[in-house]
Amino acid sequence: MTAIRSSRRRAARRGRRTLTAAAALPLLLLAACGYGSDSEDDAGPSNPSSDESSAEALSADEVTIGYFANITHATAVVGLQEDGGLIRQELGGTDVSTQIFNAGPSAIEALNAGEVDVTFIGPNPAINGWAQSGGQSLRIVSGAASGGASLVVNPDTVPSLDDLAGARIATPQLGNTQDVALLNYLADNGYEVDPESGRGDVEVARIPNAEIPAAFDSGDIDGAWVPEPTAANLVSRGAETLLDEGELWDDGRYVVTHVIARQDFLADHPDVVEAIVRGVVDTNAWINDNPDEAKADFNAGLAALPGGNELPAEVLDPAWENVEFLDDPLAGTLQLGAEHAVTAGLLEETDLGGIYDLSILNRVLADAGQPEVDDAGLGVDD
C-alpha cells in the first residue's frame, strides 16, 4: 500500500492544480454481488492513523459517513481507507466513523435519524428523502459516479427484451435507484406492475444484494436490474446482459452515486463537508489517473471491511469497466429520475428546487482551475 499511497498523494497534489473532470470506473456493491460483508449495517468507529489523530480537528470532532460496498461507491471505499485514504486525510484530526448500507432507502433512514452525517447514495433514495421531509432533510453536495447498472438475465428463460412477461426480476430494495429504473422501464413498455408489491405482468422481487446471486443460481429469479459488481457476478454465473441502463440515457451518462449531507450538519459544519468534498475530488482524480492501481486498491479496501473479501478478476474486471467516476452530479438526470419514479408509481410530483448545494464543490473545482458544474436550476439559491 505504500507505493499506492505515495502515488495517490502525488496525484492529489497534481489534481488540485490541474484536476481533470473525473471519468473512471465506479465500485460495485460488495454486498450486491455476494462478496464481502453480509451486513447491511457494518458500522463502527474507524481508528485514525497517527498522522490524522495528531492533526487539528475541524469544527466537528467526529463525522459519520455512509456508503455501499460496491464499485459505484469506489470513491468512498478507496477514499475512506484508514491507510492513506484521501478523504480521511482531508478531514485531518476529525475522527471518522463509517456505516455500510445495502441500498439507498436504508441510508436515508439513518440520515434522517441522525446516525450518519454524510452519505454516498443513489439518486432516487435522495429524491424520496427530499420529498418525504418537505425539502428539509438533505442537500446534494457532490457527484461521485455514473453508470454501472444493467438488466442481466438467464438467457434460457428470458432470451430477449420482448420475453419479460412472466419473468421474476430482482432489484436490491423497494424504491432504490435500480428498482425505480426497472419499474419505469416496464411501465414505458406496456407492462403493468403494482409498484409496492411488485406483482404484475413481470414480478419484481426485492432481494438484498448479498442474496441475489444465490437466488439466481437456484432459479428463484430469472434475472436482476442491479449495479456493479452484482451484474458482472451474475454474468460470471451464466447470465447475459439484456440491457445496459446507459442505453436509456443521453450520452450514456446518468448519476448512479452522489454525495448528500444532512442540512443541519452542513449548516453547522461546512468546513467538514468541504473537507469530504475535497477528498472526493482528489480520490476521483487519483482513480482516473491510476486505474489499475485504483482497482487493486478498491479490492484491498473491500477485503479490509468487516467480513469482506476481494472480488475475483472475472467479476471485478468487467464490472470496473462499466463505471465512470466524476465529480459532476449530473443534475439534469436527477430530474429525469424523479419523473421516472412518478411514472413507476413510487413518487408524487415533487419540487426539487433547492435539493442541490454545489457551492462547496464549485469552490473546490475553482481551486483546481476547473469549470463549475451545473445544478440544472435545482440549487438552493436558484
Structure description:
This protein has 382 residues and is α/β, with parallel strands linked by helices. It is built from 16 helices and 14 strands. α8 (177-188) links the parallel β9 (168-171) and β10 (203-206). The radius of gyration is 19 Å and the shape is globular.
Biggest sheet: strands side by side, in what order? Answer: 2-5-3-6-13-7-14
Give the low-confidence spans. 1-54
What is the helix fraction of residues, given as a range?
40-55%
Report the biggest beta sheet as strand number plus sense, adding barrel if it closes. Answer: 7 strands, mixed
The ordered H/E elements are HEHEHEEHHEHEHEEEHEHEHEEHHHHEHH
- Cα shape: globular
Helix count, DSSP H or I runs of 4 or more residues: 16
Structural class: alpha/beta
Q: What separation lies between the terminal Cα atoms?
A: 44 Å
What is the radius of gyration computed over CA atoms, rounded to a whole number of angstroms? 19 Å
Set down the secondary structure blueprint.
Layout: H1 2-18, E1 28-29, H2 30-33, E2 44-45, H3 50-54, E3 62-67, E4 70-71, H4 74-79, H5 86-91, E5 95-100, H6 104-112, E6 118-121, H7 123-132, E7 138-147, E8 149-153, E9 168-171, H8 177-188, E10 203-206, H9 212-218, E11 223-227, H10 230-236, E12 240-244, E13 255-262, H11 263-268, H12 270-289, H13 291-304, H14 313-320, E14 323-325, H15 331-344, H16 359-367
Parallel strand pairs: 3-5, 3-6, 9-10, 9-11
Antiparallel strand pairs: 1-4, 2-5, 6-13, 7-13, 7-14, 8-11, 8-12
